[in-house]
Amino acid sequence: MDIRKIDEEYAVSGQIAAEDVPQIREMGYRAIVCHRPDGEAEDQPAFEEIRRAAEGEGLEIRQIPVGSMGVTPDNVHAMVDALDEMPRPMLGFCRSGARSTRIYEQTRHIRS
User: Fold this and answer.
1) Averaged pLDDT score across all residues of the chain
2) What InterPro entries does this protein's entry cite (predicted)?
3) Number of domains in the chain
4) Could you report the per-residue pLDDT of 53-73, keeping only the tens digit for each?
5) Whole-angstrom distance between the N-terminal and C-terminal Cα of the chain?
6) What pTM was estimated for this model as a whole?
7) CATH number of the domain residue 94 falls in
8) Confidence band, pLDDT 50/70/90 cuts, at residue 112
9) CA atoms of 78 and 15, how far apart (whole Å)
10) How far is CA 54 from CA 81, 91, 105, in A?
């Protein structure tokens, strides 16, 4: 797991697995946002599996899938809602962390 801190409230990572969730909690993250649609790759864990692990660790979790069309206005608004409604610090993840970074950068224009 390669977590890259963007700022005090948000960090990004490539794909995580259910077994990574206890370490994420131990690192102080209070919420997780998945920006990867289910079924994108054969070796990708299902969001439901990660959701169960996160909830078992007391973390809030949400899926805001960013598909092949890239970040859409609906994605950005859903991410703004997540940032307004969920505890922080928050970890966003996708395959490499790039989509999670892009969507967060776009929320800054709306939230500032």
Assistant:
1) 95
2) BLH_phosphatase-like (IPR005939), Prot-tyrosine_phosphatase-like (IPR029021)
3) 1
4) 999 999 999 999 999 889 999
5) 30
6) 0.95
7) 3.90.190.10
8) low
9) 20
10) 19, 12, 24
Q: Which tokens is 72 given?
A: 């859409």
By residue range, what is the domain housing residue 44? Answer: 4-111
Residue 93: band (very low, low, confident or very high) from pLDDT cuts 50, 70, 90: very high
